[in-house]
Amino acid sequence: MGTNATSEVANFHYMLSERKAFDETKVGVKGLVDAGVKKIPTLFHRQPDKFEKASNLGNHVIPVIYLASIDKDPTLRQEIVHKLREASETWGFFQVVNHGIPLSVLEEIKNGVKRFFEQDSEVTKGFYTRDKVKSFTYNSNFDIYSSPALNWRDTFTCYMAPDAPKPEDLPVVCRDILLEYGKHVMNLATLLFELLSEALGLNPSHLKDMGCAEGLVALGHYYPACPEPQLTVGTTKHSDADFLTVLLQDHIGGLLVLHQNEWVNVTPESGALVVNVGDFLQIIANDRFKSVEHRVLANHVGPRISVACFFSTGHRSSSKLYGPIKELLSKDNPPKYRGITVADYSAYFEEKGMDGTTALTHYML
């Protein structure tokens, strides 16, 4: 083995041992901040994104869709379907307001996430695991052993559906609000999948009948204040491995969407929820709807709190294959993807890690 190869192997082992040591603390990024770190460890240092210099924040604004009175006025419903179609085809992202979830519930779920991460570390350590079978898990960086650089973020994951979690498996500090918020988001997604079905020219129940709203995974993200935000990111550029994501972000912001090769800032709006098309919706819509890449900046200010609800069964095994919807296909629009199970896609997504590339290309025909 040449000198270069030997040093590469040594570097790899050092990187793994460094990540393992961080993982074994079970206190995540918050633990580093609590310990008073002034310089972030090199395992968080990242390569600048190729679109960084092309960024021109503020030139575009992602579409905002008002859902009030949608069931009372058929003309209004058609207008909303049209706006949703346009947003899903060109942006892959939109914000919804007047969505029916009370402001008090939105505030309480953010507070619940904050309470979880800010309780005594001996309590949070009890939930720290990488065992995907559990209905509630907490850790830092799901792809800690595969990503090129770690993200400045800790996360808890809660499987809400198809199997509802047992209340006793959830942390006391956010148990009630997690269960309540899950029901509200499920109702909203049922409406959104109806509207998206109509936007594709299908029967309103088409996407729901396919199982798009069957699985719900809620992620509570905690982004601590970062002493050197220019060296890292809160979340690396990626698209979501699900059908649809409903995101609640706090007032700090930092979510950027890649639109026409420019990073566009998603300005936090009080009471608004950010919705985006996931990879699976792009697959079944045969590229008509776009699962768009996005990222989150690290920030001197913190903690930033966000709650991402993924409509997907994730790693829960199922033999159900998802491919382009046959009603959308024709001689001029042949299928662009092969059929794939959600569990296989999730496993590939995780193994690949957040390396800045999309998992979709792996499944193209």
TrEMBL record:
Molecular functions (GO terms): dioxygenase activity; metal ion binding
Highest classification ranks of the organism: Eukaryota, Viridiplantae, Streptophyta, Embryophyta, Tracheophyta
InterPro entries recorded: DIOX_N, IPNS-like_FE2OG_OXY, IPNS-like_sf, Oxoglu/Fe-dep_dioxygenase_dom
Source organism (scientific name): Lotus japonicus
Entry keywords, A to Z: Iron, Metal-binding, Oxidoreductase
Family in the record: Belongs to the iron/ascorbate-dependent oxidoreductase family.
Pfam families: 2OG-FeII_Oxy, DIOX_N
Cofactor list: Fe cation
Protein name per the record: Fe2OG dioxygenase domain-containing protein
